[in-house]
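User: Can you predict the 3D structure for this chain?
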Amino acid sequence: MASLTNLKIVLLFGNLELGGAERQGLLLARHLKEQQGAEVQVWGLGAGRGAVADQCEVWNIPWRAVTLHWGLRRRLPHLLRLWWRLRDLQPQIVLSYTKVPNLAAALLWRWCGVRLCVWNQADAGLLLPSTWLHRWAISRVRQFIANAEGGRQYLLETFGLAPSQVRLIRNGVCQAAPADDRPTWRQRLSVSDDAVVVVMVANLSRYKDHATLLRAWRLLLSSRGDCNDLLVLAGRFDDQAEALQQQAERLGVAGQVRFLGAVSDVSGLLAAADLCVHSSPSEGIPNAVLEAMASGLPVIGSDIPGLREAVGEAGLSLLAPVGDAEALAALLQRLMQDSDERQRQGALMRQRAEQQFGLERMCCETVDYLQAALEGMP
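Assistant: Here is the predicted structure, written as structure tokens:
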């Protein structure tokens, strides 16, 4: 197989903030650097540094912010600047993640001295409409990785790709050691020992569905009467943060909802929780859900392909139709009032995470795919 040693590899993200796709890319970047001996760099197409840059410095991975605005007036000059920087570095491999990096890499790589461009499809098509630009960009790429079967099928069916072009490589989960233990976190949240803590880890953006979760939480509290249970929303404050906080106030549940913003100690927060919920209209396989599963938490979520693939047969009964607050509330009620079922489901989720979503497996499968793609080139 072709060696990756000393090859220049650029991982291209939408920005240097930390989301699920970026977390997976970072874990792969570390593996490529430390286990394969590649010369890895991480680039973000946004201004300034973020948590991705911080982690790169911890792992001694070079990073760079190359601003790229996708608006029509600034797209061409920004693409030219990215082209110039890639051409100057001349990496052998570019791995792109999420919509704009995927499109930019697809349009530029052939003119930058790049041998291999790999498009990483991290959702089930929510951000990838079948426009002429998307079709043209996809036609310029030969290798694709999808992190879930839903994303793989979307590429095959919508864009007519050959099955051999799209490799299914599911996310790998890596649990960092908690910075603080369960009692410390619950004290920070001002929650009693007997309260049930429900957590959703996801950036507060239009691509998630926190609004349905808040409506479900209102229905749940109405049925449970006087209780001190807590819903914790952890994630970067994106375009929906203010609207969601206002919604919580209107619904009268603000006192039993915590908006934490971005959390560095996700493992510690998960250890303090009793139940994970993930309300979303479309996903690949959510990294946050895998981390909750690895922490031994049961998962309630939206009945979408990516979540079905994550939780497997044992967790299907805990998925509700997208946008159905009543069904979501009923599932929350079911598990919140039954600690034994929570423990059983949590044990099943931990076992599935260990067996199906190991980090080493994800990294090795990706390396094998890259090596085979390089070896098969003229």
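The first strand starts at residue 8 and ends at 13. DSSP finds 15 helices and 13 strands in the chain.
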